[in-house]
Write a structure and sequence with these properties.
It contains three helices and four strands; from the N terminus they run E-E-H-H-E-H-E. It has 123 residues and is of the alpha+beta class. The chain has one domain. Strands 2-1-3-4 form a four-stranded antiparallel sheet.
Length: 123
């Protein structure tokens, strides 16, 4: 209780990642689907090419950093087209969204999103 919250080590961890207050705004890049009528559809990490959410985040961030968003968007769109669970998705968007984490979790309120690119799902 009396240790510095950043003093982390064996055998007692203070879990410094939880020891300080964090802001409520979370900013992430992600792929999202849109129907022909503009409704949002969640695209699972598998459609980005991995089973892991954080790996999907890294794939998208890497594509942004290397200016390779168009090829990634097209690969995701092809994967969406092959998945019958996403038959209503007409467009893939890669966006960066800034959301209030509490408002998003409590009532689903989305913050602003900036489109990096979008591509049609080939049907």
């Amino acid at each position: 209780m009396l240790r510095d919250p950043d003093d982390d080590g064996y055998p007692l961890s203070t879990y410094p990642m939880f020891a300080h207050e964090r802001g409520r705004t979370v900013t992430l890049a992600y792929a999202i689907g849109s129907t022909a009528t503009g409704e949002r559809r969640v695209l699972e990490p598998e459609l980005v090419g991995t089973h892991e959410v954080l790996q999907a985040l890294m794939v998208i961030d890497g594509a942004i950093a290397s200016h390779e968003l168009a090829p990634l968007c097209q690969r995701i769109a092809v994967a969406v087209a092959a998945d019958s669970a996403h038959a209503d998705v007409a467009m893939v968007r890669i966006v960066r969204g800034s959301h209030d984490a509490v408002e998003l979790l409590v009532d689903g309120t989305l913050g602003p999103e900036l489109d990096y690119t979008r591509c049609p799902v080939p049907r």
